[in-house]
Design brief:
The chain is α/β, with parallel strands linked by helices. A hairpin with a 3-residue loop joins β5 and β6.
């Protein structure tokens, strides 16, 4: 007996909605949203791999006319449905292109919904030749179609969590048959479709009634067996129950017919799918295209990277002397060098010093290659291109940055020829894209590529860590934390696990009876998150102790105890800087993160005392003063702020004087604090609620304060509105230099997502421009230090060295006798990195024997 054919029918809009909400941040480089399309693509691949159908079609709700027949029965049907969000509607043409590539026919018709089309097809194909059907949907109405030849694949969460309902599984789940499911829906209704049902009857009651009486008719035939409120409800809404049954019943006579030739899975177009995934930047999905498709399509190669590159043994460095640009890759401490797309050499790392300064390097995360040069005491070459950084520069929301994802094919990292082939291909591809964006290309050439070399030197150099100092600090902290615990126990009059949210909540809100009027309640009880504890900090002294306990235990575990385990044999700590994490372009530090050691707390400063220069040396810390506020004044062209910065006056005091209409010398400490809060908060999208929380103002006072601020700073308000409009109209915002951040979420229908996107958009030009200037300053500082070595001012081993970059500052180590001169020069370089903006930049510096001193 032949195995039955298998049809998969996809509930198109159901899947589309699921993908849209599962991937809200996904977009193309120009800001075009693609989350819903991505969801469809992911599910499409899952269907084909796991369900292995013979035919696939997509049922679609035809806009406006699909529910006409049910509206005639009940005009309020689906009246509560919100219209499709604009950013989702914009993706429909992209979905249709995707379906065409998959060769999936899209079926829609007047007066019938997608559910009806799916049910009709399942009945039709079984009657024709016994073809079985799998319905893919998140709409549980389809469960009424479950039978021996029809299975419902219900999407439960995300796009890959699927529960399959056949008659047996359905019965085990709902305790009734699929045929009875219609009557359950008739009784309980469906709020999502505005189907009334019987008011006050929920799912449990409906299932119980249908299980007992078999059907809706049975329930009403035995209505007199019911008592009290339930009987009253059933009698009052009998007409609505039967109307609801008509509304939920899937119609099996839709005017559709399966075109088996058109729907056959053999029609899939792998080349088109790969091209579309590449166009939409779904490159990680390219690797998931089944090999069987690709083998059946003469127009597409396997998705593993194909290479014609030949390995050659290097007999002489002359093989490379006429090649200016070299692609390099490190694998198992072996160095692989490729002077072109056709050739690769295995290179002895000990020979790196013999590569001339004429060479420049391309690679993927090329900083690691440069550090290999440093480990072999070889001069670092310049960077021509980094494919990882290049991908992120072209799309600041890019998260999948491995070679396979970027190139759209599987790259075997154990095969250097594949890796280097992919690097050359990406190099050419990204260069073409950069040429279309001249300002972004200039950022790559003047900032991103040069800063990689600077960072490689900093990471290689590292910073000395006094581990003995931290060991003593750890012991002392342990005793202090124990003392705090005892104080907490004393207030609670019992010992408990302070780290347990549940036990802490029991003590705070139970034992101590601290009011919970404004405390958020979670599934497990009242919250003990910092934001919630902050609301009750003045109600009991135990709260301040909990804050201190949390701060000290976190710093002890994260830094005091952890950092000594990360030093090298010379007691130096080496962080890693990433250029492809923050969409603003800011550097991020990890393994370990040295940018997050608190600087404003005494304990944070104490930890920094463990970072020390060599004997006879000192640290210089050079820090931009009020950097982002100055940039806000410049970007918004706000004359009062620009003037205040040029005169080096106290900007917060000047703002307060204008806000309160008083002379500058009469501004109180509290008034200055409020002005400072609004100066910084406004540019981060802070509203009345945030300002009131930070200053103690009432909401009404905070609202008036912000309104007054915009009166005296009209250009700031106009600038914010311009940035928001650009984010909405153009799909991106940019820094003063032209670095872009896509802003797809400003089109979101979700209020919280949309407002968050606008805040990020307003903040990006300031933070991003600050990051751009900092990178240029670091490049200029390094050039100055190198020049002084070249002209003989310092020997290489005595030259000052940049060690760390933290927020708006750089940390430099140098000989004590050189410190003042070097600090002044660094200050001059940083203050004059950008002289074109209409605001002066101020850099403060400090010199000390430890990082904590400065």
């Amino acid at each position: 007996m032949n195995k039955p054919k298998k049809l998969v029918v996809i509930d198109g809009k159901s899947v589309f909605y699921r993908g849209y909400y599962a991937m809200p941040n996904l977009s193309l480089a120009d800001g075009t949203p693609t989350g819903g399309v991505y969801g469809f693509a992911v599910l499409g691949l899952e269907i084909l791999k796991k369900m292995q159908p013979d035919y696939v079609v997509v049922a679609w709700d035809k806009s406006k006319t699909n529910i006409r027949s049910r509206l005639k029965l009940y005009p309020e049907y689906k009246a509560n449905r919100k219209p499709m969000p604009d950013d989702m509607r914009a993706q429909i043409p992209l979905v249709r292109k995707l379906l065409d590539a998959f060769s999936w026919d899209l079926l829609e018709c007047d007066d019938y919904e997608a559910d009806d089309i799916m049910g009709t097809l399942a009945k039709q194909v079984f009657e024709e030749d016994g073809t079985e059907t799998i319905m893919v949907t998140s709409d549980l109405d389809m469960l009424q179609c479950v039978n021996e030849h029809t299975t419902v694949a219900a999407l439960k969460k995300g796009l890959k969590n699927v529960v399959y309902f056949d008659p047996k599984n359905f019965r085990e789940t709902y305790k009734v048959t699929a045929e009875q499911f219609i009557d359950i829906k008739a009784l309980k209704g469906d709020a999502s479709d505005n189907i009334p049902g019987v008011r006050g009857v929920g799912e449990k009651t409906a299932i119980k009634l249908i299980d007992q009486y078999n059907s809706l008719d049975g329930v009403y035939e035995h209505i007199n067996e019911q008592k009290g409120a339930l009987k009253t409800k059933l009698e009052a809404d009998k007409d609505m129950a039967y109307l609801s049954r008509k509304l939920v019943t899937i119609m099996l006579d839709a005017p559709v017919k399966l075109d088996r030739k058109k729907a056959a899975i053999d029609n899939v177009k792998p080349a088109d799918i790969k091209a579309l995934f590449d166009e939409y930047r779904f490159r990680s999905l390219i690797n998931q295209i089944p090999q069987s498709w690709q083998q059946s399509d003469d127009d597409i190669e396997t998705n593993s990277i194909k290479t014609t590159m030949q390995f050659k043994k290097m007999y002489s460095l002359d093989d490379l002397t006429d090649k200016k640009t070299l692609a390099m890759f490190i694998h198992d401490d072996e160095v692989w060098v490729s002077p072109n797309k056709d050739t690769v050499y295995l290179f002895d790392p000990k020979q790196l010093s013999k590569l001339t300064s004429l060479h420049s390097v391309i690679g993927h995360d090329v900083k690691e290659v440069l550090k290999l040069f440093a480990r072999h005491a070889a001069p670092m070459p310049d960077v021509e291109h980094d494919t990882r950084v290049g991908g992120f520069l072209l799309n600041g929301l890019l998260r999948e940055q491995d070679l396979s994802s970027l190139i759209g094919g599987e790259v075997d990292q154990s095969e250097p020829t594949q890796v280097l082939t992919a690097i050359w291909q990406l190099y050419e591809q990204q260069n073409k894209e950069l040429q279309q964006l001249p300002k972004v290309q200039k950022i790559a050439q003047s900032m991103e590529w040069p800063i990689i070399k600077v960072l490689a030197r900093m990471e290689h150099e590292g910073v000395f860590l006094d581990t003995e100092y931290l060991e003593h600090m750890s012991d002392k902290l342990e005793d202090q934390i124990t003392d705090i615990e005892q104080e907490i126990y004393g207030h609670a009059d019992t010992e408990f696990n302070v780290n347990s949210p549940g036990q802490l909540a029991d003590v705070l809100y139970g034992t101590l009876n601290i009011p919970t009027d404004f405390i958020k309640k979670t599934k497990s009880g009242f919250s003990t998150a910092a934001s919630e504890l902050d609301k009750i900090k003045d109600l009991h002294p135990i709260v301040a102790l909990i804050f201190k306990y949390r701060e000290w235990t976190k710093l002890k575990s994260t830094y005091v105890d952890a950092l000594p385990k990360l030093i090298d044999q010379h007691s130096r700590l080496h962080t890693t800087y990433s250029l492809s994490v923050a969409a603003t372009g800011r550097l991020s530090s990890h393994d370990p993160n040295l940018q997050n050691i608190p600087i404003r707390t005494e304990l944070g400063k104490t930890i920094r005392h463990a970072f020390k220069p060599a004997t006879g040396n000192v640290f210089i810390n050079a820090d931009y003063s009020q950097f982002e506020l100055r940039l806000a004044a410049a970007l918004a062209q706000e004359p009062a702020m620009i003037d205040a910065f040029k005169k080096d006056t106290d900007i917060h005091q000047a703002t307060a004087a204008q806000m309160y209409g008083i002379p500058v010398n009469e501004v109180s400490k509290e008034q200055r604090y409020s002005a400072k809060a609004v100066n910084f908060g406004i540019m981060y999208g802070q509203g009345p609620h945030g300002l009131s929380q930070g200053t103690g103002m009432t909401m009404a006072e905070a609202k008036k304060f912000i309104e007054k601020y915009f009166e005296i700073r009209p250009n700031i308000k106009n600038y914010i509105e311009q940035i928001k409009q650009q984010a909405k109209d153009e799909g991106f915002v940019e820094t003063w230099y032209g670095r872009r951040r896509p802003t797809p979420d400003v089109q979101s229908s979700n209020f919280m997502v949309r407002e968050g996107a606008y805040r990020a958009a307003v903040n990006m030009p300031m933070q991003g421009t600050a990051a751009d200037i900092m990178k240029l300053a670091m490049i200029n500082i390094q050039e100055y230090l190198d020049q002084k070595v070249t002209d003989g001012t310092w020997k290489m081993e005595d030259a000052p060295k940049m060690l760390l970059q933290v927020h708006d500052s750089v940390l430099i180590e140098c000989r004590e006798q050189d410190a003042e001169a070097v600090a002044k020069k660094v200050q001059e370089i940083m203050e004059n990195t950008n002289t074109e903006m209409p605001v002066t930049f101020k850099v403060d510096y400090a010199i000390g024997k430890t990082w904590g001193e400065i």
